[in-house]
């Protein structure tokens, strides 16, 4: 039973650690102009016909970046929870040649802004699940608590990934309809959806680690109580016979 618990607990640790790594890579995309941060982005669009915009723009959690000749991002100052809102003063500060779906709408601004706090909360609980997972290797309660933390992280990661997919797929379609070629960042989307899968698998393995041996241990406990009861009965009977 201990071997099975350790095996499932290790699998939970493995998948949770993988999810944390992928989330951090996505979260740090655009923070610096070094590899791999400068190749991770949500959306790339040709924005050369927008006044003051670079020829190609890439959106991340932290900023909107230009693209250099080596197909890597050139990002300026970082701003946490950077919104996806092309016509606003935070981005291009103009409506000229900006897809009309973005003009006068708060949908893209609000949806993209909610992504950041949800991914931070999900990452926090994933880290808790990772450290509590060390107890899942040897105790049932450690497995159950780790599964709860991993499941909470999975819920927040699901919200983040769905918001990201919705807002940037719509944004890509808006740019393409406006004659400005756009496509999604494959790495960011692959990392986020893979992290979501890893969190789900990690929570399942943690839960199994917490449930391994439960019936067997419960059966042994009942047997010990039953034997103790009959042992006490025999002892009492023997004592009565000796007194008579």
TrEMBL record:
List this protein's GO terms for biological process.
cortical actin cytoskeleton organization; endocytosis; fungal-type cell wall organization; septin cytoskeleton organization
Q: Tell me which GO cellular component terms the UniProt record holds.
A: cell cortex; membrane raft; plasma membrane
Q: Where are the transmembrane segments?
A: 7-28, 114-137, 144-169, 189-212
Cite the entry's keywords alphabetically. Answer: Membrane, Transmembrane, Transmembrane helix
The record's annotation in InterPro entries points to:
SUR7/Rim9-like_fungi
The record's annotation in PANTHER family points to: PROTEIN SUR7
Q: What is this protein called?
A: Cortical patch protein
What organism does the UniProt record list as the source?
A: Aspergillus sclerotialis
Traced from the root, the source organism's taxonomic lineage reads: Eukaryota, Fungi, Dikarya, Ascomycota, Pezizomycotina
């Amino acid at each position: 039973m201990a071997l099975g618990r350790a095996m499932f607990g290790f699998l939970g640790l493995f998948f949770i650690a993988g999810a944390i790594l992928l989330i951090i890579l996505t979260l740090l995309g655009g923070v610096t102009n070094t590899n791999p941060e400068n190749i991770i982005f949500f959306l790339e669009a040709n924005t050369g016909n927008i006044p003051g915009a670079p020829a190609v723009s890439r959106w991340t959690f932290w900023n909107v970046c230009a693209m250099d000749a080596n197909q890597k991002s050139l990002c300026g100052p970082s701003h946490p929870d950077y919104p996806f809102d092309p016509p606003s003063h935070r981005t291009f500060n103009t409506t000229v040649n900006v897809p009309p779906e973005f003009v006068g709408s708060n949908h893209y601004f609000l949806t993209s802004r909610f992504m950041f706090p949800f991914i931070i909360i999900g990452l926090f609980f994933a880290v808790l699940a990772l450290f509590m997972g060390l107890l899942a290797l040897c105790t049932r309660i450690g497995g159950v608590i780790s599964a709860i933390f991993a499941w909470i992280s999975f819920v927040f990661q699901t919200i983040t990934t769905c918001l990201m997919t919705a807002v940037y797929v719509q944004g890509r379609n808006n740019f393409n309809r406006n004659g400005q070629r756009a496509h999604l960042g494959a790495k960011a989307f692959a990392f986020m959806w893979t992290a979501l899968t890893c969190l789900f698998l990690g929570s399942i393995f943690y839960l199994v680690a917490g449930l391994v041996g439960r019936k067997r241990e419960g059966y042994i406990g009942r047997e010990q109580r039953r034997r103790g009861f009959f042992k006490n009965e025999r002892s009492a009977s023997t004592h009565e016979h000796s007194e008579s």
